[in-house]
């Protein structure tokens, strides 16, 4: 990311950031939720709403981040077709189940959208692929 891109986001607001990410074929649950939380129907799970938005914006895939300790959420998202793409080390600044730990890793879970017909943007054994938080954009 260059300085001009960052200053453009600052000048034009987060909507330009969503536009750029969408043009690149990426729409993350986090970025969409920050931009459109007020438009999300309260009776519809966010992921279903966001997946429809991702397909409408011709995105390649949908990403979401889940604490490694949140087995219930991981099971739920896997049942919806998501898989672990990678592990983001120390993604969370606290630990949900162990107060003696200062951070917790996250699973970056990913699902191919309609545009990714060949599933080129997902991987097997994502649990074995670790990255640092600064490597995730």
UniProtKB/TrEMBL annotation:
InterPro entries: Acyl_CoA_acyltransferase, NatB_acetyltransferase_subunit
Keywords of this entry: Acyltransferase, Transferase
Gene3D superfamilies membership: 3.40.630.30
GO cellular component: NatB complex
Gene Ontology molecular functions: protein-N-terminal amino-acid acetyltransferase activity
Entry keyword annotation includes Lipoprotein: no
Disordered as annotated region, ranges: 118-137
Sequence ranges of Basic and acidic residues compositional bias: 118-128
Highest taxon above the source species: Eukaryota
UniProt protein name: Uncharacterized protein
Provenance organism: Akanthomyces muscarius
């Amino acid at each position: 990311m260059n300085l001009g891109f960052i200053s453009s986001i600052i000048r034009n607001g987060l909507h330009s950031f969503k536009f750029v990410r969408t043009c690149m074929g990426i729409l993350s649950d986090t970025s969409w939720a920050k931009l459109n939380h007020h438009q999300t129907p309260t009776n519809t799970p966010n992921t279903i709403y966001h997946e429809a938005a991702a397909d409408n914006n011709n995105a390649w895939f949908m990403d979401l981040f889940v604490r490694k300790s949140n087995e219930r959420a991981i099971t739920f998202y896997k049942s919806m077709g998501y898989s672990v793409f990678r592990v983001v080390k120390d993604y969370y600044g606290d630990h949900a189940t162990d107060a003696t730990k200062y951070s917790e890793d996250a699973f970056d879970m990913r699902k191919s959208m309609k545009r990714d017909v060949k599933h080129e943007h997902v991987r097997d054994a994502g649990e074995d692929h670790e990255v640092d938080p600064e490597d995730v954009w």
